[in-house]
Write a structure and sequence with these properties.
alpha+beta, GIY-YIG endonuclease, three-stranded antiparallel β-sheet, disordered C terminus
Length: 129
C-alpha cells in the first residue's frame, strides 16, 4: 500500500490518501454484485486497469458505465471504500476526488488521460508502508 498527500481540488486542503497496489486490486476485484455507498472504483479489462472513478454511490455509477454504449469495455472492478478519520464512510466529494486522483496518477489508466495531465496538482508525496 502507498500513501500520498494530494491537494484537494475543491478546498485546496492537503488530504492524505492510501492506495492499494495493482496485485491487490486484481486479486480483490468483484463481479458486479456488492454495492458500496461511497468510494473509488477501478475498472479492469483482461487484468489491466483501464479506468478509475469515484462516486458517492459506487454501485450505481459502475452500473451506469455498463449500460453506456460500448465506449469502454470492462470485465471486472475493484472498490476502495473511502472512510473519514473517525471510520465513518466518507461523504465529502473532495476526499473522494483526492483518492481518485491518487489512483490515476499511480496507474495512468488509458481512459483517464485528462486527469493524468492535470497541472492543478501542486504536491504529491509517495510513501510506501
Amino acid at each position: 500500500m502507498n500513501k500520498l498527500t494530494i491537494i484537494g481540488h475543491l478546498t485546496g486542503a492537503e488530504i492524505e490518501v492510501k492506495t492499494f497496489d495493482q496485485n491487490y486490486i486484481l486479486s480483490n476485484s468483484e463481479d458486479f454484485k456488492k454495492p458500496v455507498v461511497s468510494g473509488v472504483y477501478v475498472l479492469m479489462y483482461r487484468g489491466n486497469i483501464i479506468y478509475v472513478g469515484s462516486s458517492m454511490n459506487v454501485y450505481k455509477r459502475i452500473k451506469s458505465h455498463k449500460q453506456k454504449p460500448r465506449t469502454m469495455v470492462f470485465d471486472s472492478y475493484f472498490i476502495h471504500p473511502v472512510y473519514n478519520s473517525d471510520s465513518t464512510i466518507c461523504n465529502t466529494r473532495d476526499a473522494l476526488l483526492a483518492h481518485e486522483r491518487a489512483y490515476i496518477i499511480k496507474f495512468k489508466p488509458k481512459h483517464n488521460k485528462d486527469y493524468v495531465e492535470d497541472r492543478s496538482i501542486k504536491r504529491i508525496q509517495l510513501k510506501t508502508f
